[in-house]
Specification:
Elements: H1 10-21, H2 26-33, H3 37-49, E1 53-56, E2 59-62, H4 65-99, E3 106-108, H5 112-125, E4 129-134, H6 142-157, E5 161-167, H7 174-185, E6 189-193, E7 199-203, E8 207-211, E9 223-226, H8 229-244, E10 246-247, H9 259-269, H10 274-281, H11 285-299, H12 304-313
Parallel strand pairs: 4-5, 5-6
Antiparallel strand pairs: 1-2, 3-9, 4-7, 6-10, 7-8, 8-9
């Protein structure tokens, strides 16, 4: 989002060029920004999606920077507020579900074996869509992961739409990341969120499988929720979290990485400080700090170490 204001990003360079020259076309902007026409066209499309620039019959026009910055900050504040509210709602639903045990629409899961069986059953019985909040820890064997992929591919081939919201930890494990990529290539619609505390699988609007405390041993606390207002509330929560997730593409995630960013993240992963990276690349420390912040956000990482691991998994190093 904030690449718009970053003078070192393609979005930032194109936006700055457009604010300088006024109404313009792709070729002129490419000359002013020093970028290829394909890079400019891609950046303009992204900027238009953010409502930062407008395409008119006579050319591209930039919206006023002060207004753009204000709207970007408001959007980020709104996103953080929505995430906080979703977390609070999730906590409330968790307690409601626990207190609903014993009612016909809520059944406890006996053990891990039953949990695995139910996971498959919810997908097998879905005829329209499967919605999934996925996060670690994972207790499945490699063979079970293969079986799950096969089941999902078959269900998608049968016309069942899968939307999966992954925890950002998917980037920390090469095998999990590869599995996610394979499913996206077969038709899964995937997004990544910085963190969600539960596992939730919803088949159509009929059945949900809730694992409210994934860190617990076995299936303790897990629940099957049948069609009810409680299931509808969990489905609504999924939709809220989905809007906050970052879309994931099966395309090579390093394709749009600039050479400068590649050098920065390589040196960062090697353990160099911001100052050392700046000296090595002949950049200002401010530029390095800003680009690292953008890269951390893009990787969904909170630490430099985590960013290095995730960059390696993506093939950026």
């Amino acid at each position: 989002m904030f690449d718009v204001l970053d003078p070192d990003s393609a979005q930032g360079q194109v936006y700055r060029a457009l604010t300088r020259v006024g109404r313009s076309d792709v070729d002129t902007l490419a000359d002013v920004a020093g970028l290829s026409t394909s890079d400019v066209s891609r950046a303009l499309g992204e900027l238009a999606d953010l409502d930062v620039v407008v395409r008119e019959p006579s050319g591209w026009v930039a919206r006023p920077p002060a207004r753009v910055m204000s709207e970007l900050l408001r959007a980020e504040d709104a996103r953080r507020t929505a995430l906080w509210r979703a977390g609070a709602e999730l906590d409330e639903l968790y307690h409601l579900a626990r207190h609903a045990e014993g009612r016909p629409e809520v059944e406890p899961v006996a053990d891990l074996a039953e949990l695995f069986t139910l996971t498959a059953r919810v997908q097998e019985r879905a005829t329209e869509r499967v919605r999934w909040l996925d996060r670690p820890p994972y207790r499945s064997s490699p063979a079970r992961f293969v079986a799950q992929e096969s089941l999902q591919v078959n269900r998608m081939a049968a016309g069942v739409a899968y939307r999966v919201l992954y925890h950002r930890a998917v980037y920390d494990d090469a095998a999990l990341f590869a599995g996610m990529t394979r499913m996206i290539e077969r038709g899964e619609d995937a997004r990544v969120l910085a963190g969600h505390p539960v596992k939730l699988l919803i088949g159509d609007d009929r059945t949900a499988l809730l694992i409210p405390e994934p860190e617990r041993v076995g299936a303790e606390g897990s629940l099957v929720i049948h069609a009810s207002s409680l299931l509808a509330a969990f489905a609504g929560l999924f939709e809220t979290l989905w809007t906050l997730g970052v879309p994931v593409s099966a395309a090579d995630p390093s394709a749009a990485l600039s050479e400068q960013d590649r050098k920065i993240i390589t040196l960062m992963a090697a353990g160099l400080t911001d100052e050392a990276i700046a000296r090595r690349l002949k950049l200002s420390r401010r530029t390095v700090v800003r680009r690292i912040a953008v890269l951390l956000d893009r990787l969904g990482a909170t630490t430099r170490f985590q960013a290095g691991v995730q960059a390696a998994n993506r093939g950026w190093l």
